[in-house]
Amino acid sequence: MMGGSASESAYRVLMGVLESRTGQTLSPNRIWRIEMSLKPVMQRHGIADLDALVAGLVTSNSRQLLDDTVDAMLNNETFFYREHSVFDDIANNALEHIRTINARTRRLTIWHCGVSTGQEAYSLAMLLAEQEAKWAGWQIDIVGTDVSYHAIARARVGLYTQFEIQRGLPVQRMVRWFDQTEAGWLAKADLRRRIDFSVQNMLTDRPPLASSADLIFCRNLLLYFSLPMRQKAFARLRAMAAPQSFLVLGAGETVLGQTDQFVASPRLRGLYEPADQQVRRPDLTRPLAA
Ligand SMILES: C[S@@+](CC[C@H](N)C(=O)[O-])C[C@H]1O[C@@H](n2cnc3c(N)ncnc32)[C@H](O)[C@@H]1O
Question: Which of 107, 112, 146, 149 could form a disulfide with 217 if both were Cys (CB 3.0 to 4.6 A apart)?
Answer without folding.
Answer: 112
